[in-house]
């Protein structure tokens, strides 16, 4: 693997210093100051400015605006520096990328290098990750490896969702919205004391629906697909008496709607322009398009205070039942749109899934000069996944090929972290974790009577075991009461993975021979330096971090191609470097401005790595070689990582105008990301140009917040861009959401 260029780090460190100096501004007359941001990046409640981790936070106020109109978690993409998200599964299975590191795999048992945690419980399976956002206090985006405290599969970072907790005060809120395409949303929460001083509760609920709005011109059906109906709820009980605190959380979700809509030959051959016949509101398809998701879970957090020692136990359980079916070719074979050599309709199901987690931690008091915590962690997941391919001689809509995959994963870990104040200004923090994992996988492939002859019946199986140590070390220097400098070195780890999706496997009965792939464990080293500053009498906040990442055995998934299969591969190495800068500014009491900027350079480093290219007639721009068995192979050395924009920029502005009974306000948010390549290889078709999207919200809220009304819009400039593609048998494309406008009424009590 190539060594990183030291000049990159010197350049980025210099840029960070310049950005920090440029933030100095003259004193302002307004008395308002920025609110302190409390995060739990170190599993302790701390001021974000004092944590030696690059953290981006999304507040509840910003969430309420960017999530307007019933959008899903993809709306978080580019809302903080270095965060990107995409999906080929509509309102579930979001794939997150931090600093360019992610996984484009669409299989139901795939592993991701970005950890996702909801209320301190990891959501490992990607189908658990689409749980709606509501009644949320904040979202924390922890950039860089988080292996010490959050475990394996977090080499890129961790996204943590923190719900609002029960209190003894009776309070809550209600909101309702209506918008285009008969989109209806309702959300609310109520909480308060059940037993005075001892027991509190909070019930939160959310409902969203949208009518079908996409016509199918092949069947002649108007408003055939595109809609959904989704309900989610969460109940929390908080018990507090003496040294014991207990928090119970039960939650559930039910989604019935359309899967991601693929449009055949939406991309023009020879470039990435949308075809002249493409429409967001119509398709020409002979396949079905269904998405059904049901998930439930619960957790119990116990804390016991032993006079300065805090014992914490978190037990979690999650389960999901999912079925999704889609027209993969996006059209009708022989009839279009464009040339489609054959029909392809597939489905995936997760009929049996269970995840158990248990964490036990012991820590000392926050105010000590030497602060420490240590613990144990256990994870167990059982997954059954079905795969279906449709089309046989008797009926193109009947099941032709069926696969039954089973996977069990068991993990245990021991970890510890400590911070020591070397002086009043200098603090050292170090942590270490040992993770042990076992994984067993099996798959059975069955051809149904009358199926088109693609391969044979077959079986496959594999088992893996792996043990890894991850660690981190950091120094924090308190230059002044308002400026902290930090440097951090961290080791990240992504567990080995097993993959088999043999719907289109043309080999023999032994699926292990070409139909099953295994990726070795991925490890990386991350080097960071940053500054966190409160400026202008705490009316401005500027944080800048520069980083360099060196990756060994980087896991990638070669998706799609002529077989529409998933194949795990390890690149010899990879490299990433860049910076993140975040600014909050309160120039007047009524005006709040925020901005975020990130640069991420990524590069695959493997001179021998080659993969098959598209099966849909794209124009490959990488160097290629021809293999007598596999056909044309692209040389990947030097390519950027897939779905890794170099530049991300976001900005918001909120201006409030006091009136006699309350406030009239205007909120606008904008996010930009540069060019994104969809696959490991490069082509003239399968990438997205840079994109700028904006939102606007104008409203009124009374002084007591008992009444509020607002009109809002998303994608207000009608940006139309590719968000993804299928490279199977034609130039299939996926586009971003159309402009959306609506009205919202809110009440707090």
């Amino acid at each position: 693997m190539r060594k990183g260029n030291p000049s990159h780090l010197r350049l980025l460190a210099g840029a960070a210093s310049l950005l920090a100096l440029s933030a100095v501004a003259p004193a302002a007359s307004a008395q308002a100051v920025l609110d302190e941001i409390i995060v739990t990046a170190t599993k302790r409640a701390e001021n974000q400015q004092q944590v030696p981790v690059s953290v981006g936070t999304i507040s509840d106020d910003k969430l309420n605006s960017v999530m307007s109109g019933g959008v899903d978690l993809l709306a978080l993409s580019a809302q903080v520096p270095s965060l990107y998200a995409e999906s080929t599964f509509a309102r579930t299975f979001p794939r997150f990328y931090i600093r360019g590191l992610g996984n484009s795999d669409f299989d139901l048992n795939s592993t991701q290098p970005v950890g996702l945690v909801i209320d301190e419980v990891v959501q490992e399976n990607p189908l658990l990750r689409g749980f709606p956002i509501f009644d949320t206090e904040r979202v924390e985006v922890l950039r860089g490896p988080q292996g010490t405290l959050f475990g394996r599969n977090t080499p890129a970072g961790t996204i943590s969702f923190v719900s609002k907790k029960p209190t003894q005060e009776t309070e809550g809120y209600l909101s309702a919205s209506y918008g285009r395409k008969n989109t209806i949303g309702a959300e609310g929460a109520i909480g308060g004391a059940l037993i005075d001083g001892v027991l509190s509760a909070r019930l939160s609920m959310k409902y969203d629906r949208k009518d079908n709005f996409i016509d199918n011109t092949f069947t002649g059906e108007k408003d055939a697909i595109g809609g959904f109906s989704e309900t989610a709820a969460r109940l929390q009980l908080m018990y507090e008496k003496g040294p014991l605190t207990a928090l119970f959380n039960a939650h559930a979700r039910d989604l019935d709607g359309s899967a991601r809509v693929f449009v055949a030959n939406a991309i023009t051959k020879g470039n990435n322009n949308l075809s002249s016949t493409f429409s967001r509101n119509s398709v020409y398809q002979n396949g079905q398009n269904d998405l059904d998701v049901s998930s439930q879970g619960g957790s119990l957090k116990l804390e016991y205070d032993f006079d300065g020692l805090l014992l914490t136990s978190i037990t979690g359980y999650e389960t999901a039942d999912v079925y999704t079916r889609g027209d993969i070719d996006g059209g009708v074979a022989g009839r279009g749109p464009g040339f489609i050599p054959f029909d392809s309709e597939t489905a995936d199901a997760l009929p049996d899934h269970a995840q158990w987690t248990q964490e036990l931690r012991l820590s000392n008091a926050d105010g000590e000069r030497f602060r420490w915590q240590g613990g144990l962690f256990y994870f167990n997941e059982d997954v059954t996944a079905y795969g279906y391919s449709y089309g046989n001689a008797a009926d193109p809509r009947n099941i032709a090929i069926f696969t039954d995959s089973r996977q069990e994963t068991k993990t245990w870990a021991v970890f510890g972290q400590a911070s020591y104040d070397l002086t009043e200004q200098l603090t050292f923090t170090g942590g270490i974790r040992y993770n042990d994992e076992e994984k067993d996988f099996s798959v059975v492939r069955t051809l149904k009577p009358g199926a088109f002859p693609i391969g044979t019946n077959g079986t496959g199986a594999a088992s893996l075991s792996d043990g890894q140590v991850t660690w981190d070390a950091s120094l924090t220097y308190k230059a002044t009461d308002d400026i902290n400098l930090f440097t951090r070195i961290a080791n990240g780890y992504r567990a080995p993975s097993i993959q088999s999706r043999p719907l289109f496997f043309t080999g023999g009965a032994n699926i292990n021979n070409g139909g099953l792939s295994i990726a070795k464990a991925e490890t990386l080293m991350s080097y960071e330096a940053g500054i966190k500053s409160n400026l202008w009498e705490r009316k401005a906040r500027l944080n800048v971090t520069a980083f360099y990442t060196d990756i060994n055995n980087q896991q990638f998934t070669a998706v799609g191609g002529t077989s529409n299969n998933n194949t795990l591969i390890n690149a010899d190495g990879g490299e990433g470097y860049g910076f993140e800068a975040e600014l909050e500014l309160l120039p007047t009491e009524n005006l709040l401005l925020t901005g975020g900027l990130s640069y991420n350079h990524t590069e695959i480093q493997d001179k021998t790595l080659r993969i098959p290219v598209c099966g849909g007639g794209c124009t490959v721009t990488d160097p290629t070689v021809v293999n007598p068995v596999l056909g044309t192979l692209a040389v990947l050395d030097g390519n950027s990582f897939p779905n890794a924009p170099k530049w991300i920029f976001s900005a918001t502005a909120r201006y409030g105008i006091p009136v006699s009974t309350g406030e009239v306000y205007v909120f606008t948010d904008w996010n930009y990301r540069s060019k994104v390549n969809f696959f490991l290889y490069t082509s003239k078709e399968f990438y997205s140009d840079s994109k700028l999207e904006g939102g606007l919200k104008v409203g009124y809220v009374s002084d007591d917040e008992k009444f509020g009304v607002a009109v809002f819009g998303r994608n207000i400039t009608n940006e139309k861009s590719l968000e993804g593609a299928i490279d199977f048998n034609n130039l299939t494309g996926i586009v971003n959401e159309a402009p959306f406008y609506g009205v919202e009424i809110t009440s707090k009590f």
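The chain has one domain: 6-748. DSSP finds three helices and 43 strands in the chain.
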